[in-house]
What we know:
Layout lengths: L1 E4 L10 H13 L3 E4 L11 H4 L1 H21 L6 E4 L2 H13 L4 H11 L12 E3 H7 L3 H5 L10 E4 L22 H6 L3 E2 L13 H4 L1 H14 L5 E4 L2 H9 L1 H8 L6 E4 H8 L4 H4 L9 H19 L1
Parallel strand pairs: 1-2, 1-3, 3-4, 5-6, 5-7, 7-8
Helix pairs in contact: 1-13, 3-4, 3-5
Amino acid sequence: MKYLYYPGCSLKGTAREYNISTISLMNTLGAELFEIENYSCCGASAAESVSDLLSYVLPARNLAIAEKMNSESENNNMDILVPCSACYLNLKKVSIDVKTDPKLLADINTALSQEGLEFKNLLNIRHILDVLKNDFDINTFQNKIKLFFNDFTIAPYYGCQCLRPYHVFDNPEKPDSMEPFIKAAKAEVFAWEMGSKCCGAAHMNTKPELGQTLVKNILKAGKDADMILTVCPMCQMNLEAFQDQISKKSNEKFDISIVYLTQFITMAMGMDDKDTRLDLNLSITKDFKKKYLNLKNNAALNREN
Length: 305
């Protein structure tokens, strides 16, 4: 399988572990990724506050470049794979909205013409979770599992943007698309109701009290899990980077490992540390490190015997 790959900004900066583990995982699954050439920011959550048109032109620029790459490729029916939920939402939004607004499409292309680009809305934009769930049989993962997380309880956290407002690959009220990967590694799915609740997104900076309250609710609900899995750099950052601040303000200790889904799958496949890059995560707890190291050591002993 071949995909055009849009990492966006975060995966080349604060979420490098997500980028590295995604590429490692897709390579192991036999998929080829073609990074969109000279890609730029999708606008994130800031562009819309500056200009409505800009919030469409920025993602459309990347899609226009992807369309050009696709047309020049021998395999010219590639989907666009997007790990970042915010990027996925912005790219998906422009693709959906221009279908019913020809003037918007014309305005976008007037702006893009300055760079010699044209957006035709030809390609399918897909979140990494959608691709993993629907393009690969779960047996493909099960057959590659080398570390079984039998004694781990794992809470899947989806956040908002990969589920809403576009109900493409999961139920936004009761999502469960991460669960087969957790179960394939023999781990227990943590039972909770916070999987699709908002983490506050950029409000962590603009309205920190609101953002920290939302994150606290998620961390409190998941505190008995061994780890919380995410598929969004914004969610990951909010859940892992503010645990100390929230603990001090609430007089309640929050110390929870937050891990990307792609990291967890590469861990379960027994891949090298350079492929998982847990060293880049901000909130891998001492207890988690000890438990994970014991798991790896026991697996190594079993292989020797």
